[in-house]
Amino acid sequence: MIAHTPRVIVPLDFPDMLSAFGLAARLDPRKCAVKVGKELFTAAEAGLVRELVRRGFLVFLDLKFHDIPNTVAQACAAATRMGVWMIDVHATGGPAMMRAARQAVTQASDEMGRTAPLLIAVTVLTSLAAEDLLAVGMTGSLDEQVLRLARLAQESGLDGVVCSAHEAAALRAACGAKFKLVTPGIRPAGAALNDQARVMTPEAAIAAGADYLVIGRPITGAADPLAALDAINASIGAETKVPA
Ligand code: C5P
């Protein structure tokens, strides 16, 4: 039983199941959640997510669903039945798609007698620059677009958004205290940036209003991943209480 929800989400960014389980075995489900994205989900055998859940991990199934409402709803219901903790969809799928996803998640979890997974939206991919938005016909500034889509997600009944920590304060102000903000692009002071351009430290991201921090390579690439995780948890005052 998890005493309280971890703040750190470790992405299992691996090309195969064996490597993912190798890292999972070196982590502690009481101290972090894990994220399964498109690469691992596609490469791994069926049963990967259920096995992580069985091992006690809170699993963020990061498949960024974007399709017609019925298809996304069915995918979200299937994810809920696998026992995941967090699911995401693209806010640009529109309000009908997000409402259908919300309804499907609620219904599937009610049927199982379980708490519904958190259903969150991706607003604008951080890989997109202003000229990319224009190229796909999105006028207006990037910040406006992020805010517009976050509000739309909230109005459609979603629990939160994935966002840059640099957007967290504005989104917290716009969407209120309960709206979950999940932030990648986090680097402890002095850690290698890798390919992340605009980063924030775990402490600063939490201070800016982030609820959950997606932190990959500073943990997955460390000689001792659990020690790296412990240090990050300590820096944000989020040590989970491990029963004796
Ligand atoms: O290793 P690192 O901490 O950079 O990993 C960040 C994780 O968050 C990766 O899984 C990456 O795909 C994901 N992510 C991101 N930026 C976004 C959305 C997701 O880095 N805007």
What does it look like?
With 244 residues, the protein is α/β, with parallel strands linked by helices. It has helices at 17-24, 38-43, 48-54, 69-81, 95-112, 130-135, 142-155, 165-175, 202-208, 217-220, 225-235; strands spanning 8-11, 33-37, 59-65, 86-90, 118-122, 160-162, 180-183, 212-214. The model has no long low-confidence stretch (mean pLDDT 94). The two termini are 13 Å apart. The chain has an 8-stranded parallel barrel, surrounded by 7 helices. The radius of gyration is 17 Å and the shape is globular. The structure holds cytidine-5'-monophosphate. Cytidine-5'-monophosphate binds at residues 11, 13, 37, 126, 162, 184-185, 194, 196, 214-217.
Structure keywords:
about 240 residues, alpha/beta, binds cytidine-5'-monophosphate
Q: What is the share of helical residues?
A: 40-55%
User: Can you list the ligands bound to this structure?
Assistant: cytidine-5'-monophosphate
Count of individual beta strands: 8
| Number of separate helices | 11
Distance between the termini: 13 Å
Largest sheet, order of strands side by side? 1-2-3-4-5-6-7-8
3D shape: globular
Q: Spell the H/E element sequence.
A: EHEHHEHEHEHHEHEHEHH
Strand content: 5-15%
| Rg for CA atoms | 17 Å
pLDDT averaged over residues: 94
The main pleated sheet reads as:
8 strands, parallel, barrel
Give the structural class: alpha/beta
Poorly predicted ranges (pLDDT <50, ≥5 residues)? none
